[in-house]
Design brief:
The chain is an alpha+beta fold and about 600 residues long. It is built from 10 helices and 34 strands. A hairpin with a 2-residue loop joins strand 30 (about 545-550) and strand 31.
Length: about 600
Amino acid sequence: MRRLIVLLMVLCLSTPTIVKSQKHTFSVGDNAFLLDGKPFQIISGEMHFARIPRECWKERLHMAKAMGLNTVATYVFWNFHETEKGFYNFKDNADVAEFCRLAQEEGLWVIIRPSPYACAEWEFGGYPYWLLKEKNLKVRSQDSRFMEMSRNYFNALAKEIVPLQITHGGPIIMVQIENEYGSYDSDKVYLGKYKDIYRQSGIDVELYTCDGPSQMPAGYLPGVLPAVNGLDNVKEVKQLIDKYNNGHGPYFIAEWYPAWFDSWGLEHHVVPYKDFIAIYDSVLSAGLSINIYMAHGGSTRWFWNGANMSKREPYMPQTSSYDYDAPIDEAGNPTPKFFAMREVISKHLPNGVTLPIVPEKKKSISIRDVTLNQFSSIWQNLPSPKVSDKPLCFEDLNQGYGFVLYRTKLKPSSKGLLKIKQLRDYAVVFIDGKQITTLDRRLKQDSLEVETGNKESILDIFVENNGRINYGYYLNDNLHGITQSVTLNDAEILNWQMFSFPMADISNMKYISDNSVSGPLFRKGYFLLNKTADTYLDMSHWGKGHVWINGKSIGKYWNIGPQQTLYVPAQWLKEGENEIVIFEQLKPEQQVVNFIEAPILDRLQK
């Protein structure tokens, strides 16, 4: 008996904690959502677990609850979970199930927005890059290959989220079909196929679509709740949803924008709460349900940022900071916008419900003059090349992200216009190891004048994926690298070597202490801490590149702004020695960095 008791104790200690809660019901009534059969107003805010360090999920969800939200909505990005075809990851920062469980512990309901298309200023709108390797495949279409890959992904995702639906005792109350499809096409059969995929996978909670007002005729699916994005006039919201939902509600504003995102080289977006707070009050007073996009934005780390581009607008990659001027800032602190919205929400709480105390703003630290005295040039770390007559794009190299070095030889006394046709997206050009210029897709730069000496020269073109387009007309035109050809005076240059730098693992770089190295390089250094706290790495004196601290990507930087700092969460630092690695493309002479106590998100530089 004693051995049995000991065994039971061991099992209890080793079994993961499972949230036990009362069984609830959630449904769509004629004019309201119904929770346990009673009218329920969804007061929701968007936050994406992929953009928040896992170590911070609980405190961010608690802050959402303290703001007054009763629900959080989150995208699930396909490419974040299936980085290579057939290999799924739902661990660590990709553990969507744990995020939902933590939300339930905080007393929050969850709305899942599972893509396969998300937009969200995320690389390729959430699609995995390897879809582009399929010849002539069209995303967001009935292409049988695309639908089969979508089905496989969603079946894998369903294993994570089906047990966490409200119908199974979990917090998930609704799941979105596709995303703003009416901005792209009007194929009801395509949307219906996703509805079938969801239901067949075990999703049995309420489904909905969301579109902008002008997109709804094309984007709604008969028999599924239509929701509207970007409209906040109560009368107009009701009229619009009535039109597509048989004359009744519920009325759900699925994306409401009290702020906006930033792009490199453009002004930082700020929307004062005084501009919209009365509207927010009117929506809640009318009993409409609403989801704030974003309640907390977080950070888009590594190479996960997307880009916008249209027939009228140039290519515009988005910044690493996804602060979004949201009520909960990038570091998870409450802002004046937070308190204004909390005050409005508190007026509309059910009887007997009170809001949690708002956690205090976290302390931050500065760290002065950290010297990075170890160096590792790309020239010292060239991998085995792939060889081709013509340059190969990233996808043909089985590479999704990072950089590719394209190398060829120029004949003696070459002179004229060198043109890179369809460069995606940013290149540093070298001749015989000397940097000649940079080419930037944002500025429609793709050519330069060259002149070589009387001997054969080496031409190197170091190309970065600055983010695949995530929205609109060019979604299916997303190959990266050198995607067509390179010519000199209109004559095509052949015989290329391609060296891949996907940046998935930088642990094997060879470092030296000789500061004479040049070109794009890694710099490594160390700093000591006797306490940890949030901080912001000031990169305003550097050029363009990427930073890792203690092996974790903290994002891209680019001195054109508006973002000049990178947020470093306290949880990714440690007492004692900390390692920092910077990959710098443009200013190899830089050696010193500083950490400061507040972000700089609004400074443009030439």
